[in-house]
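To close the section, here is one more complete example, presented without commentary so you can practise reading it yourself. The ligand is zinc ion.
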Amino acid sequence: MAETVAAPEIRPLVPHLRIGATREEDYLFGSKCSTCGAMYAGPRLFCGKCSASGPFEEVKFGRDAEVHVFTIIHQATPYVKAPYVAAIVDLPEGVSINTNIEVDPKPENVKFGMKLKMYTEKASEDKEGNTYIAYRYRPA
Ligand SMILES: [Zn+2]
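Output:
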């Protein structure tokens, strides 16, 4: 009996990232409550504002953001290279998301309100050969 092996896939590292044919076509998305209009990053089962269980409209986010708050992480889990800049960024679509900012991790290199652009890249690969794509931001 022949062993079936699934072809390696390109997968998003987080549920609010959609993978395109190329990294330039990857995008973050949100869910907009059809009842009250509240916007959330990623998929959603219930609205935290009006308690409706949907329906939710999927909204494609652009690549722009600005720094809301940030910190510099100096100690991370063993396989993560530190230091790095961890941040919460505001999107013009009205949501805030956690991310890393790709800059030399020094306080003088990041400013509150600084304009950013999202990009994606390979973050890791599992033993079956599946590739995991992560999003990050860098100064615009
Ligand atoms: Zn709602």
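Once you have examined the tokens, check your reading against these statements. Residues 65 and 92 are 7 Å apart (CA to CA). Residues 33, 35-36, 38, 47, 49-50, 52 surround zinc ion (CB under 6 Å).
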